[in-house]
Amino acid sequence: MNTKDCLKLANDEERIILNVRGVKYETERSILTAYPETLLGTMFQKRNSQLLQATNLNEYSIDRDGMTFHYIMEYYKTGQISWTGPASQPPIHRRKLDKELDYFLLPSIVLPADLTKQYKSCVQGMKKICRSAFDKKSGETLVKVTLTPTSRFFLVRYLKSGKSVHVPVTPKALEIFGLFGVDIEDEVLEEWPGLIWKIRPIQGGLVIFLKLKKPMNPNLELGKKSWN
């Protein structure tokens, strides 16, 4: 084998195609192994070559989300992730991205302290609403939560009793819901898996409808209120 053939073989071995559920990413082994503490950095070390199973000469299948993997590769190429919320391309919500980062043993996204505080305020506020509304003794199954740009409160209306209450929230709650609405929903549904969550925009704000699929008290029947 002459020098030209040797160089071609070396280049072919260095180039890697990652097929992530049908979405293909082409990279180089050295880009991945530059981060040996990560999953892909370990997998593609030369010492582990015999453990890898290529579907083609240099193509490897990875059973993860193909769109989110865009950000995984961005980290390997640049050492950072330029994720800025739903406006990012491709649009991936934070908790889904965090799960993928955790799987690939990459650093989690660190939000600015003030943004983290406001996010937690929204999550805690929504959980407080659920605990109060869907207590076994309340009998409520449908709640309407309204948020406007100037409000420092969630306006909560219990549709069975007709009662309304105010729940304090960060003054930037509307902005936080715009950035992390799906993440807030995920966190609430972890505690309330039997909850139906629907958001509807209104002029300058939003309305969140919360409905229990099944009442907490088995002796209570679901209300006949509709979403319309």
Descriptive tags:
228 residues; disordered N terminus; alpha+beta; five-stranded antiparallel β-sheet; 21% strand; disordered C terminus
What gross morphology would you assign?
elongated
DSSP strand content:
15-25%
The overall pLDDT, averaged over residues, is 84
Unreliable stretches, pLDDT < 50, 5 or more residues?
A: 3-12, 216-228
User: Tally the helices: what do you get?
Assistant: 7
Strand order of the largest sheet: 6-5-4-8-7
Query: What is the total tally of β strands?
Result: 8
Work out the helicity level: 25-40%
Q: What distance lies between the first and last C-alpha atoms, to the nearest angstrom?
A: 74 Å
Q: Nearest-angstrom radius of gyration?
A: 24 Å
Biggest sheet details:
5 strands, antiparallel
Structural class of the helix and strand makeup?
Answer: alpha+beta
What is the element string, with H for helices and E for strands? HEEHHEHHHEEEHEE
Any overview of this molecule?
The chain is α+β, with helices and mostly antiparallel strands. It has helices spanning 3-14, 29-33, 39-43, 69-78, 94-103, 113-133, 173-191, and strands at residues 15-20, 23-28, 59-62, 142-147, 153-158, 164-168, 195-202, 205-212. A 5-stranded antiparallel β-sheet has the order 6-5-4-8-7, covered by helices on one side. Helix 6 crosses helix 7 (173-191). The radius of gyration is 24 Å and the shape is elongated. Mean pLDDT is 84; it is low at 3-12 and 216-228.
Write a brief caption for the model.
This protein is of the alpha+beta class.
Question: How are the SSEs ordered, and which strands pair?
Answer:
Elements: H1 3-14, E1 15-20, E2 23-28, H2 29-33, H3 39-43, E3 59-62, H4 69-78, H5 94-103, H6 113-133, E4 142-147, E5 153-158, E6 164-168, H7 173-191, E7 195-202, E8 205-212
Parallel strand pairs: 1-3
Antiparallel strand pairs: 1-2, 4-5, 4-8, 5-6, 7-8
Helix pairs in contact: 6-7
